[in-house]
Amino acid sequence: MALPFPKSATTPESKSRPACGKSQNWTAYAAAGTLLASGALLLTGRRRAGLVAAATGAALALLDQRDAVRDWWNTLPVYLDEAQHLLGQAQSTVDELSAQREKLHRILAR
User: Fold this and answer.
1) 33 close to 60: Cβ distance less than 8 angstroms
2) Three-state SS sequence of the chain
3) Which residues contact 50 (CB under 8 A, 6 or more apart)?
4) Is the per-residue pLDDT at 110 higher than 60?
5) Does the predicted model carry a pTM greater than 0.70?
6) In which region does residue 4 sit, left (phi positive, over 0), alpha (psi from -120 to 50) or beta (all else)?
7) How far apart are CA 27 and CA 64, in angstroms?
8) Are 53 and 38 in contact (CB under 8 A)?
9) What CA–CA distance (Å, rounded) separates 24 from 14?
């Protein structure tokens, strides 16, 4: 019967993870605190300071979520192509409706 040995605390994996986790925790806490502060500033009527704090908090949140931002950035062209296709369809529908309106106007004007 063989039992697996637990990983010791001196493995390179266990050394690198806590440091990375601590590094990411401070950015998450800073982002959350800045966003809360921006909300409070906006509620008290200090619009400009609230917007600056919100932009700062959003930037810190993006720093904390680099992988999510990278994934979003890589899929952005697909969404833009789909949006362009939908806008093209809407434009053609508007053109068809305009042509039908002109035709109906000509028929009724006789």
Assistant:
1) no
2) CCCCCCCCCCCHHHHHHHHHHHHHHHHHHHHHHHHHHHHHHHHCCCHHHHHHHHHHHHHHHHHHCHHHHHHHHHHHHHHHHHHHHHHHHHHHHHHHHHHHHHHHHHHHHC
3) 38, 39, 40, 41, 42
4) yes
5) no
6) beta
7) 6
8) yes
9) 16
Q: Is the pLDDT of residue 36 over 90?
A: yes
Distance CA 101, CA 110 (A): 15
pLDDT of 24 above 90: no
Q: According to the model, what pLDDT value does residue 23 have?
A: 56
Q: Which two tokens stand for residue 58?
A: 């959003």
Say how far apart CA 70 and CA 63 lie, in whole Å.
11
Query: What was the pLDDT predicted at 62?
Result: 87
